[in-house]
Amino acid sequence: MVELLGYTFMQRALISGALIGALCAVIGVYVVLKGLSFIGAGISHASFGGVALGFLLGVNPVLTAVVFCLLTAWGIGWASRKGQIKEDTAVGIFFASTMALGILLIGLMRGYNTDLFGYLFGSILAVTSQDLWVTIGLGAVVLSVIGLFFKELLLITFDPEMAEIVGLPAEKLYFLLLSLIAITIVISIKVVGIVLVSALIVTPAAAAYQLTEDFRRMMVLSVVFGVGSTVGGLLLSYWLNTASGATIVLLSTLFFFTAAAFSPRRWHRPLLNSPS
Q: What pTM does this model have?
């Protein structure tokens, strides 16, 4: 174990994995409680178009993916709020169109790009120092915004109508939450890949929800499950010589089923710190 930690690439992978696991777990609590899981999946697949555009233009694919995912998130929010269509319908439209655009852009490239394959399925062991600093910087922005608007985001998660009544800009806060989800997805795709990143956001929070209804305790448990999944999955994938992204998600899924098996709901017992 000590010898393994002596490798620079493993140190970067563990640090980035722990950061991504914690960040996805925090934003995942809002996603699960507000029922935005399908939106998360739609935005994650939309990042494929942004990454492909970055490779085609020869610029950092993370930057193009951030812009692309933000526009997609805002487009989904606008279409569902102003376009008189249901949220899942808006997600389906953007899901298909952005994936199709990504495929079209790949067809315009010359040759096969292995880095693009890494973004699709994750390549945590290939995380560079630049990737790590981007993760730290954007992750700090996301967590700072969540900390700054913690009470407001909490209110629109549980009762957006009450938020409007007390004078909060509920619609703007909704778009802010979508933006935070989009940024979190983009900085996570190098770890678990575009295909699997939505699972890393949803599953740890869903596991925590099996054990408690207290918001803060749920967030703490979600972070524990998220970091445990990324760090544990990375080490397991290294020892078993398996795909890191898939191993991380499968370990997270195992945590969920374990939490569900011991959930107080299953045995009709009070949840941790739930209202009596």
A: 0.86
